[in-house]
Amino acid sequence: MKGEIIILAGIALIFMGFLLVFIGTLVSSLGGETEVEGGGVIMIGPVPIVFGTGRGATIATILAVVLMVLWIVGAS
């Protein structure tokens, strides 16, 4: 029962992600000039690899540190 809830939550998050990308693309195509910034994190065990530009990279770095701490705390 508990596993089924986690699976459904994961599927819902994936669909919400697709919806947000679609809405973001639609809004940016209707607007004027836009500036693109973004960032991401690849976690290999507790080691984060952060990439991106501008504010997106800063937010990605903060999230990477939080994920790293959660991983270390959860492993002990």
UniProtKB/TrEMBL annotation:
The chain crosses the membrane at residues 5-27, 47-73. Keywords: Membrane, Transmembrane, Transmembrane helix. It comes from the Archaea. NCBIfam families: TIGR00304 family membrane protein. This is DUF131 domain-containing protein. It comes from Thermococcus waiotapuensis.
